[in-house]
Amino acid sequence: MKVGLFIPCYVDQFYPGVAIATLEILERVGCTVQFPLQHTCCGQPMANSGFEHLTNDCNNLFIRNFGEFDYIVCPSGSCTLHIKDHLHSDQDEQAATGVRTKVYELVEFLTDIVKVTDLQANFPHRVGLHQSCHGQRGLGLAQMSELNAPAFSKPEALLSKVQGLELVTLDRMDECCGFGGTFCVSEEAVSVKMGKDRVADHERHGAEYITGADMSCLMHLQGILKRKGSRVQVKHIAEILNHQ
What is the DSSP string of 109-123? Predict the structure, then answer.
């Protein structure tokens, strides 16, 4: 299958290793992957700040870059959800609709499309899973604890296939970390307190690493960990699934 690799701005600038791990995983499961060199920001920061009406150029460029692929895969739940829910075009709405239907976050692509059974990964550490809000409540990567419904977690299912990995049980599996994109700027104090609560939950249960499917949330938690001098590290799920 022909896959377009959609890498968010912050991953490109700050965590290129996540992009490389995503590429290597996709190639290992048999995908032909291309990275459109002209692709830029998907427009999510503008939309989150109330300026979605100014994202037309971003939208049309995204469609031109990714419209011809069988699938579009992104290692970020928030950016994926933005495209799924908000991509429109003042030039070709039919093309925009086509793109919206074939964009996938990495975990859901591996689980629902590839149906991967073994990535031959090895990561002998105690790991806590942070289930980001966009992925959980927007993309349905995991069940919400407030619902009286059968529990499931696609990230957990993939991590359970990693040799040597011990997934720790947290007190509040699906509590928000407080990042929230521009929320962490407009409500800094609330954001930091929420992040400290998430970090404390992982530390309390002896996690060596915190992982998740959204590097933006992990970046927020990483800042809190570094400021308090914690030994706990963060690692995107793609890096763990690609670890040999």
Answer: IIIIII-------B-
